[in-house]
Design a protein that fits this description.
Layout lengths: L1 H4 L5 H25 L19 H17 L3 H20 L6 H4 L2 H16 L6 H10 L15
Helix pairs in contact: 2-3, 2-6, 3-4, 4-6
Length: 153
């Protein structure tokens, strides 16, 4: 069993599934805060007022960034932005309340921060549009006769 878990062939698929699950959960937080779905902002059933700092901007990053990472499109830069927003959320909102995430309610921002940082370094894994688009751009075009320049003798 351990050999199977360490298999290089399985890693991209597990990483792709990790990316999909983490980013879907992240995007759901943004959708809840912006549209009042899934319990709304902070479970209140409501939405955040447009343009309010920092909550509304964080929700936009969660929805858009989470959606991009979910699709595997621009995964690395989107993951860096998502990770940074969660680092900000943790250190500005949660950490002043207490030292440990368990005490200050910052477990989710801390986990999202580290998960997106991992994705920023590893990339999208399997099932991502990044991978599909990079394959298409690396496929050589049909062979065309190259123009030869005459060599002076």
């Amino acid at each position: 069993m351990p050999r199977r878990l360490e298999s290089a062939t399985a890693q991209p698929y597990v990483l792709g599934l990790f990316r999909i699950v983490v980013s879907l959960l992240f995007a759901c937080h943004g959708a809840a805060s912006l549209f009042g779905v899934l319990g709304g902002a902070a479970g209140s059933g409501g939405t955040l007022d447009a343009g309010t700092w920092p909550g509304w901007y964080a929700a936009v990053i969660q929805l858009v960034g989470g959606g991009l990472v979910l699709l595997g499109l621009g995964t690395r830069p989107a993951a860096v932005i998502c990770s940074g927003s969660m680092a900000y959320a943790y250190f500005k909102v949660h950490q002043p309340g207490a030292l440990w995430p368990l005490e200050n309610g910052g477990e989710a921002p801390a986990m999202f921060c580290w998960a997106f940082l991992l994705l920023a370094f590893t990339g999208s894994g399997a099932f991502g549009l990044d991978r599909l688009l990079s394959r298409r751009s690396s496929v050589p075009e049909e062979s065309t006769p190259e123009r030869q320049t005459p060599v002076a003798a």
